[in-house]
Amino acid sequence: MSNSKLYKGSLNTIILKLLNENDKMYGYEITQKVKALTKGELNITEGALYPALHKLEAEGLLDVEVAKVDNRLRKYYKLTETGTKETVNKLNELAEYIKTMQALVKPKFA
Amino acid sequence: MKLTDSQIEKLYNFTQKHYVEWYDVQTELVDHLANGIETQWQENPNTSFEDALKTEFKKFGVMGFGDVVEERTKALNKTYWRLIWKNFKGFFKLPKIILTLFLIWAYYTALSFSMQYHTNWVVIPTLTVLFGFPWYFWIKEFKRSRRLKKQTGKKWLFDNTISQLGGLVHVMNFAIYFQVFYQNKQVWPVSLSVIFSICAVLIGMLIYIAVYVVTPKLRNEMAQHNPEYNFV
């Protein structure tokens, strides 16, 4: 991710969340979807995306499928059963993290 | 505007020139570059193919495709070992654990028997098989890959991982240190015989799982998921 190192730790969660909502996606589609959802605020770099996808695949969280689209082959990623369960955990972790950070950054004084 | 077949071919050559020799890795990169170029053409149809490609490649950063290949290799090894470990654990649960214990006992008995006669009749064939077989497998797979490359023009990183048994082949280089056994014809203490028997059986099981369980399973999965990998 080029625009902030803060997002780096959340890349896997972002990928899992998108795949949870979209059944199957390919690499380029993920970069574009993130760009659109964040209105260009977050830009996932190619050099970070593919290693992350391959790692999630190796961990058994993603399954792959190659299909011919137009005149070329396209590799699609989709969540495995374990991946779907892990998405819930990761999202909870991220929510907790955001809550903690908010408490630190904007402490509520009684 | 869509890319033509010859432009797709150019993209494959481009990845090859940038040190991606594996077809399975090239395919994903080619599709990514092609999508990027087509998006650029939507915004600016006058951009040349070459310029659009340059812009897309820059997005991969200073390391180019290097990180992608490196991480893909690591990920494939990880997948491979995850499957081996899953199957290996199965040999320590009922009912297979009975077979594991029986093999260790049988091997220990044979080893002790040969020791009584101060011979290496059990140790030498064991080491030869345990360390020789992975190399035999690697050579066989290497020849297969070379033949496929000649026939189809493609080399698969996936096949490379399988042929090296996920790196196990290199571990087997330690065989050289075992030459001590070839010279030592003394009777071993019971503890050494037990440890040797356990190690021999476990390494044997590991090689068996890698070659006869995980390799065909991964090849079948690959063939199911990838229409181009149609030579299982």
Keywords:
heterodimer; A: 110 residues; Arc Repressor Mutant, subunit A; 4 helices; 3 strands; B: 232 residues; mainly alpha; elongated
List the helices and strands and how they pair.
The complex is a heterodimer of chains A (about 110) and B (about 230).
Chain A: H1 11-22, E1 24-26, H2 27-37, H3 46-58, E2 62-69, E3 72-79, H4 81-105
Antiparallel strand pairs in A: 1-3, 2-3
Chain B: H1 5-17, H2 23-43, H3 49-58, H4 66-90, H5 96-116, H6 123-152, H7 157-163, H8 168-171, H9 179-183, H10 190-225
Helix pairs in contact in B: 1-2, 2-3, 4-7, 4-10, 5-10, 6-7, 6-10
Largest sheet of chain A: 3 strands, antiparallel
Give the total of domains of chain B.
Answer: 2
First and last CA, distance of chain A: 38 Å
Helix content percent band of chain A: 55-70%
Name given to the CATH architecture of chain A: Orthogonal Bundle
**Major sheet: arrangement of strands of chain A:** 1-3-2
Order of helices and strands of chain B: HHHHHHHHHH
- What do the pLDDT scores of chain B average to? 86
Strand content of chain A: 15-25%
Number of separate structural domains of chain A: 1
Percent of residues in helices of chain B: over 70%
Task: Summarize the biggest pleated sheet of chain B.
Answer: none
Low-confidence stretches of chain B: none
The dominant shape of chain A is globular
What is the third-level CATH name, the topology of chain A?
Arc Repressor Mutant, subunit A
**Helix/strand order of chain A:** HEHHEEH
Q: Which oligomeric form is depicted?
A: heterodimer
Specify which chain pair forms the largest interface: A-B, 29 and 33 residues
Distance between the termini of chain B: 37 Å
